[in-house]
């Protein structure tokens, strides 16, 4: 089984999000590959309506969130916890480089988030920016399942992938450092034109797609590549 995550970031309103799912249904009219699991990470606000729409369209799609609170519950204005999204979202992206850059996310908060996600059975997708993060982050990955996402911030938002050799070396280092059973995801500048080569890399368990996940047609092309 290989995974494909669509990280919408701060994009779309409700009408656009809903149209995306109808378009996705049309793009999979000829069938959906059984060996691929597609997960959309929308803004939290849209989780409930999208969850209901996925059910009514019978789409083989799951939902995840782009972040969760480092606190389980309580007086933390503006925060949304894994406890709240559990049942709607099966995955949570943690420590994305944009969260670190713009919102001061630290290894300490990422560790807290991992623990809370595991408590509520939301699979953590822990983002690492490069080999230096392996040393910096004294990550306590806790129980499986955990997914490690490798994204070099220099390679986000473009059209050119990281060198596959670099991806595979990072994957090797992750597997040496953490359990072999940790799933390994690559993200950064993935699009319909370059996805095939990545699907062929056996060491990869999945792909995280940003800007090319905003159009149903391009996300479907990547999924079917
Ligand atoms: P990108 O973003 O596909 O637009 O490079 C990936 C990500 O940051 O999750």
Topology:
Elements: E1 2-7, H1 14-27, E2 36-41, H2 47-57, E3 61-65, H3 82-85, E4 91-94, H4 97-103, H5 107-119, E5 123-128, H6 131-136, E6 147-150, H7 164-177, E7 183-187, H8 195-199, E8 206-209, H9 216-224
Parallel strand pairs: 1-2, 1-8, 2-3, 3-4, 4-5, 5-6, 6-7, 7-8
The chain binds 2-phosphoglycolic acid.
What does this structure look like?
This protein has 225 residues and is an alpha/beta fold. Helices cover 37% and strands 18% of the residues. It has nine helices and eight strands. Helix 1 (14-27) packs parallel to helix 9 (216-224). The two termini are 15 Å apart. The model has no long low-confidence stretch (mean pLDDT 93). Bound molecules: 2-phosphoglycolic acid (PGA). 2-phosphoglycolic acid (PGA) binds next to strand 8.
Annotation keywords:
binds 2-phosphoglycolic acid; alpha/beta; globular; single chain; 225 residues
Structural class: alpha/beta
Give the radius of gyration.
17 Å
User: Treating each run of at least 4 consecutive H or I residues as one helix, how many helices?
Assistant: 9
Give the terminus-to-terminus CA distance.
Answer: 15 Å
β-strand percent reads 15-25%
Main sheet makeup: 8 strands, parallel, barrel
Give a brief outline of the structure:
This protein is 37% helix and 18% strand. The chain is of the alpha/beta class and 225 residues long.
């Amino acid at each position: 089984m290989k995974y494909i995550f669509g990280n919408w970031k701060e994009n779309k309103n409700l009408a656009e999000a809903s149209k995306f799912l109808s378009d996705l249904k049309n793009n999979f009219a000829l069938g959906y590959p059984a060996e691929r699991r597609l997960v959309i990470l929308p803004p939290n606000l849209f989780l409930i309506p999208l969850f209901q729409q996925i059910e009514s369209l019978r789409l083989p799609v799951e939902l995840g969130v782009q972040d969760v609170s480092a606190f389980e519950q309580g007086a933390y204005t503006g925060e949304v916890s894994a406890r709240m999204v559990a049942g709607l979202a099966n995955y949570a992206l943690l420590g994305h480089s944009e969260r670190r850059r713009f919102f001061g996310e630290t290894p300490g908060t990422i560790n807290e988030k991992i623990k809370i996600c595991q408590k509520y059975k939301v699979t953590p997708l822990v983002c690492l920016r490069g080999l230096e993060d392996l040393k910096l982050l004294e990550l306590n990955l806790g129980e499986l399942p955990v997914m490690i996402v490798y994204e070099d911030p220099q390679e986000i938002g473009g059209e050119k992938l990281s060198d596959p050799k670099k991806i595979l070396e990072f994957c090797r280092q992750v597997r040496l450092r953490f359990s072999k059973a940790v799933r390994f995801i690559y993200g950064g500048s993935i699009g319909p034109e370059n996805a095939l080569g990545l699907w062929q890399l056996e060491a990869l368990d999945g792909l995280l797609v940003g800007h090319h996940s905003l159009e149903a047609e391009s996300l479907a092309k990547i999924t079917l590549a």
